[in-house]
Amino acid sequence: MLPKRTHAALAALAVTAGALAGAGVAHAGHGKGADHGRHRPAAFERTATYPVFQNRPAGEDAASETVAEISATSEDGRTLVYTDAVARRIGFLDISDPDRPEGLGTLSLASLGDAEDEPTSVTVVGSHVLVVVNTSASYTEPSGRLDVISLRTRTRVASHDLGGQPDSIALSEDKRYAAIAIENERDEEAAPAGGEEGDLPQAPAGFVRIVDLKGSSPAGWDLRKVALTKADGSALPVLAAAGIAGPTDPEPEYVSVNGRGQLAVTLQENNGVVLVDLPTGRITKAFTAGTASVDGIDTVEDGVIDQTGSITDVPREPDAVGWIDDRYLATANEGDWKGGTRGWSVFDSRTGKVVWDAGNTFEHIAARHGLLPEDRAENKGTEPEGLAIAAYDGVRYAFVGSERGNFVAVYDISRPTRPVFEQVLPTTNGPEGLLPIPSRGLLAVSSEEDDAEAGVRASVSLFRLGRGTPAQPSLVSDEDSAGAPIGWGALGALSAVPGRAHELYTVTDAAYATTRILTIDTKREPAVVKRELTVKDADGAPAGYDAEGIFARPQGGFWLAVEGRTGAGNRLVRLDRSGVTRQVVPLPADVAAHLGSQGFEGVTATTDARGREIVWATLQREVRTDPAGVVRLGRYDVRAGTWSWYGYRLGTTTTAGDWIGLSEITVVGDRLAVIERDKLSGPAAKVKRIYTVALPRTAAPAGTLPVLPKRLAHDVLPDLRATKGWTQEKLEGLTVAGDGRVHAVTDNDGLNDSTGETVFLDLGSSRRMFGRG
């Protein structure tokens, strides 16, 4: 079998002067932080995230890999069907209540053919589910079939040989035709004669199948072939004349049909688009997707979000395509082997010319929302892969999915040549299928990445068009001094800003090579990262600390709690106002020697009327020589240069592979507040809590570890569940702002083994939570 398909400054490439002006990326969202210059009351709000492993067959291990790639719905929009290529089946969900989707079970393709049969796409016509299935034995012997399944009984009522390996399927608006891209994809490890590994051409060539759906039962449907090469395998003149890269090996990828029965087919590896008249099967036009040069993006994988790079004359290599109307079509330019321009484009189908291009704005949207995958900077970046277009309440929208950034960007395309960015919808990992359900005001997003061990599970997310400000995203950024959005992520700590009631500090951790302190304005909605300060070592060079805690000193400067790869690497670091390292306090050797990689996780401090500063820091987990279940809270007397220790008793867990630890500490009046959490995410998450202990006024006797009684202040799990998204594992930042509001934040790990979504929470007043202002 073939391996599972992996679909895999402003922009320099503005086709017209106004092209990027309509992108609107300077606007953060729909709240106080986003003024689009016009009233826009409608927005998509997430209603549910359904992990598809919950829909597995009885007896199957919950950790078994299972995904949701492409989806479709019944004509009433209440039953969703999704493909699961990994598990070789299709799944069914009841989405009658979009707040509570329910699994309806699965249908294994092994019962219809071979255990290795792989669904690649799906659609629904009337009472029938149309599933295209890859049955290929090899790249050189591609094969596939179209299975027609009864939606009611889930039995196969017909099957048709496709004569090649299928990729996507699309319906005409009048339901008279289905069109299937028969890709016959290349072997990326094979080299054609005279070429390099993965090059084109590699026979056999792909083509398009048209299925005539009307006038007979599914068993009697007629299938027609639209060849994209001549019978002898040579290039069609229309493709060769259009500048298609490898016209003898077209590899059609994605299909879409407009209201006039005109089919658009992307040839991703060939960087082209072909138009076909469905009633006649005649190719009416072919054109190249062209190249783009894009400035102002991160192009080096160095652990630093540096948006000053550029790519030059790169093929777009579009994946998904969608008709905006009967004239204009849009493509998501994911790229494949030679290209990928990190955005999406609008083409005039009459001329084949680009009339709008996203340039760098799609990458900037990712950076603004903390969703830029820096570790993909040299390889297609955010990888815009999926694209869907639909009208809701008379407004036409484009939805563009980022495979690596784990989000969908929503645009108003009422004017096709001037799309306006509206909002970001955070998803789980690898959003593959974007399914508008306008009859119900819904959008479904199916995600293809599933890794139980990492806590990343494939899901179907549902969003509903409503009014008001959506709860997510809860944190975005302003522009930096160069006009690009401040890139951010991996926020594992919070501190109030002395003297500023509505501002907080946070700090990036080891997910990035250079440590930065970011200032958050909490008064705006969503909250906004408004400034950044690069942390420097004692010599003034940018520092790379694994900063897990931050405290802004009233007398100026900061304390950082720096976690080490080993116990000896843990230290407190004092910075001046400019972020320069002025003092390093190592963890005592007798403690460090018995500590693993999970060390310092938070820092806070008090200063008395005589100027005596006491720093408090928490370790995440137990020191090996300490009693089981007791973690240390460290008290460091700055003037004396001495440590003493108190104990905190952790809760317990019965989940295999789980542990409980601390991830933050902050002073609240005469108490210390800490975050206690498990390492579980999604529906498995159980412990995300804020506890308090009394703030000791004196040092504990040397060699002792008095355990401080704890008191539950707030269970944060319901707040995380209320986002209706994937419940984040790493609740890691906590502080009380100058206005008395309690804030918490999750660490997105820079998108590594994480959905990437950052949840920034306003948990209410300190007086109400802790009993004081």
Automatic annotation (TrEMBL):
Signal peptide (from-to): 1-28
Query: InterPro entries, from UniProt?
Result: Choice_anch_I, Mesenchyme-surface_protein, Phytase-like_dom, Quino_amine_DH_bsu
Choice-of-anchor I domain span: 339-422
Keyword check for ATP-binding, yes or no.
no
Q: What is this protein called?
A: Esterase-like activity of phytase family protein
Query: Which UniProt keywords are present, listed alphabetically?
Result: Signal
Q: Could you tell me which residue ranges the Phytase-like domain spans?
A: 487-749
**Known Pfam families for this protein?**
choice_anch_I, Phytase-like
